[in-house]
Amino acid sequence: MCSGPGSGRLDRRPDTRRAPREDGTVTTEQLPGTAPLATTPATPAEVAPADAAPAEAVPAEAAPAEPVPAEPAAAGHVAVGLPEPGEQLRLLHVHAHPDDESSKGAASSAKYVAEGLSVTVVSCTGGEAGSILNAAMDRPEVVANLAAVRRAEMAEAARVLGVDHVWLGFVDSGLPEGDPKPELPAGCFALVPLEESTRALVEVLRRVRPHVVTTYDESGGYPHPDHIRCHEVSVAAFDAVGDPARFPDAGPAWQPAKLYYHRSFSRSRIMRLHEAVEARGLPSPYTDRIKEWLEKAEAEGEPIVLDTDAQLTTRVPAADYFAVRDRALIAHATQIDPLSGWFSVPLDVQAEAWPTEDFELARSLVATTLPEHDLFAGLRPEGTA
What we know:
Layout: E1 16-20, E2 26-30, E3 66-68, E4 90-95, H1 100-103, H2 106-114, E5 118-125, H3 140-144, H4 146-161, E6 164-170, H5 194-208, E7 212-215, H6 225-240, E8 258-262, H7 267-279, H8 287-300, E9 304-305, E10 314-317, H9 322-331, H10 347-353, E11 356-364, E12 368-370
Parallel strand pairs: 4-5, 4-7, 5-6, 7-8
Antiparallel strand pairs: 1-2, 1-9, 3-12, 8-11, 10-11
Helix pairs in contact: 4-9, 5-6, 7-10
């Protein structure tokens, strides 16, 4: 089932597509062997209680169960780090910049923290090269101290989410723009030798000893050089961390059980939210984006390709924590305008239309069954979730 160590991905690729109708709307074309998109309505809470009951996780229309065997351990590696009975489960997210942890997987982070699990966020860079995207923060004193301001924002977001936070210590590469694009600055994260940045992350992984790790896929989610490098470093570290011969001075070897990619901005989710907002008679923040998809699809003579069940393998019910996610986002005041489109879809619409945060299971050294509704599927004692 898995392409093997170093590939960074389970080998599963069925397909679903959406194609424009003659009236310009978009409809699902379900191809053979695929299941319809499944959603689980949940009731949002402005402030989720720590003992909130988990949302119903398995809708009637869920895709057929697909057993996934455990990936064999690599030769010379320590055994996979399985939790002992009663041991606190540990999740570690690897992100490129401060604010990424609040825009991707934040609600599920808050959910797991409320359930008593340990959640750690690693920021590979300090976001020093980021633009100020909130006009209210575009002030001389902020510009002059942007690195320190972004550190303070990250500390507040971590407090809101209840997560531990680690700076990996590399310098933001910036997003090169123009034609031709300028060269990346010397010494930035994207240009640091992979062995150096991998060692830094391996040291954190061996110290925190997470059971589950998340990061981005090979595209980075979008083509920022730091996001792409974040993927490369995360996969390399996942492969190296359990090998005592690699980076022996970085602590005792530890092997996380699972690696996931974030799928927070899937086309399937955007389309569903767009339809739900329009059904309420509200303006959709996604209209222009979908128009671009349609125009590109028409120009290429191809339907819009949506995310498949192979990509959205794991849907964590997290609607009760969407409000917490939004507060964490707002903490990044230089990056997020509280009046922007980030917050234009009402929470109750989100909870009804798409109440999960989504991930793709890339590697699993424990047996599990897809689709999943928990990043710790296959790791919890039977009967608990």
